[in-house]
Structure formats: C-alpha cells, structure tokens
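Researcher: Here's a chain I'd like modeled. Treat it as a single chain, no partners, no ligands.
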Amino acid sequence: MTALFLRDLKLSIRAGGGALIGVLFFLTIVAVIPFGVGPDLKLLSRIGPAIVWIGALLAALLGLDRLFQAERDDGSLDLMLMQETPLVLTVLVKCLAHWTATSLPLVIASPLLGLFVNMDETAIGATMLTLLVGSPAITFIGAVGAAVAVALPRGGLLVSILVLPLTIPVLIFGVSATYAAVEDPAPFLPPFLILIALTLFFAVIGPAAAALALRNTAD
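Model: Modeled as a single isolated chain. Structure tokens:
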C-alpha cells in the first residue's frame, strides 16, 4: 500500500502539471471574482471565505477524471481487480495519494489567496482548517465519478457533472463553519463537526462505491 501511495503520488504530480495547475486555477478564480464584485473591501471580506471555498472546490475537480485513467490505459486496472488486496483499500489509498498531490497544495495556498479578498487572520485560519478537513470528502466523492467515467473516451466533463451536486453539502458546512468562526454569536463547533462527519462518511462510502463501479465497468 505504501508503494501504491508513492506511485500514485508521483503520477498525480506529473500528470497535466499536477498540483501547479490546480493552484494556478485556484488563483485565477479568486483573482477574477473581485473584478466582478467591485472594489468594496468590506464586501470582499464578507464573502471572502465563500470565494476561497468555491475556488478550491472547482480546482479540486480538475484532475479527478485521471484518478483511474492511467491504470485503464496501461492495463493495470485488470490487475487491481484480480489482486488479493481488497479493491476498496486500493481505491482508498489512491484517493489519499490524489488528495495529497492536488488538494493539499490548495489548502496550503488558501491563506495567501485569502489576503487577495481582504480576509482577516481569523477568517483565513478558519478557511484553511475547514478546507483541510472538508477537501478529502471532495476526493472521495470524485472517486465514484471517476470510476463511473473511466471507460468513457471523454469522461472529464461527466465526472464534474456527477460530482459537483454531491459536493454541495461539503461546501455549505465548510463555509458555514468558517463564518461561524468569524461571527461571535454563531457557534463554530456544530458545522465543523458535521463537516468532519461528512468526510468520514464519504471516506467509507466513496471507495466502496468506486470499487463497485470499477468492477461493473470491467464486466
């Protein structure tokens, strides 16, 4: 499993620019929105957490279609299906490697991008923490879409269409927890705990559903 994790980590970084493309796309989204909103710093500061979260969500969707594509192209997907190691565990390791290579850099870059939208230190810290906790759920959800579309010649758009509606609860509670940390009357812990619960839930359901989809695709 360690060898598989390191292999997938290298493939995720090399494929299509890896983390750099995701961070640049993240930067582009966060940098463009203020031009449409206008120069109102108070408004930017108020909607800043939502902007950063939406940018991170869209950037995390970029490489999901390649989660199983390399194995499909070189034929190793059939070996994954026939190996003694449970396929669910293999998919879980691949998801963790993909998250480390693509989503973790977005979490690290979020404080810098928070400054672009005039967020204060508390909002930046809360946004980074909620992204760290909530972004793995996006990868686990995306694994299901990637497994469904792995046999399709142009499955990238389909993966985004399948995954985006399912990630809305993660986005809602991630932004809610961030706003709760900034606004004193609102409690931070309830939405943050729900965000953790969503990640744990999809950590169980996502790999299992993706493994089932891969087996059905092979059949």
